[in-house]
Design brief:
single chain; alpha/beta; 5 strands; 37% helix; 19% strand; globular
Length: 131
């Protein structure tokens, strides 16, 4: 049986996105089953418009140039890569309802579910992380 990695993404900045998708794609590349639960600001990481320009922490703007020089893929590319590698995305239904967001605002193949949906996967996870 494959190892499982469960990730909760609740923060919505650029650094958060790189943490989430770096871990998710690394785990998927090593044949681990990965599910990411996006809640609150974490939904920004898979929002079709917002994820193109995620905020960088104040005073850290120089990292943007560093990412470019190091040929680090942009977040939309990392999202697509994660999906191609079989990483499952769950958008939090309650958060979406509270914020008035529709499934169509997010990347394709995102499942909408609640905490129970995520916990069903996470209960058997070998690694659980929160960003």
């Amino acid at each position: 049986m494959n190892k499982r990695v469960a990730i909760i993404a609740s923060n919505g900045g650029l650094f958060d996105a790189y943490k989430v998708f770096n871990i998710a794609t690394a785990a998927a590349a090593t044949d681990q089953e990965v599910t990411v639960f996006f809640t609150f600001e974490g939904l920004n990481l898979i929002h079709k418009e917002v994820y193109k320009e995620l905020p960088i922490p104040e005073g850290k703007e120089h990292f943007k140039e560093g990412f470019a020089k190091a040929n680090v893929p942009a977040i939309p590319e990392l999202v697509a890569m994660a999906q191609e590698m079989g990483v499952k995305f769950i958008g939090c239904q309650i958060t979406m309802d509270v914020m008035g967001l529709e499934k169509e605002a997010f990347v394709d193949e995102m499942e909408v579910g609640g905490a129970v949906t995520f916990l069903e996967f996470a209960k058997d996870a070998d690694v659980t992380l929160t960003f």
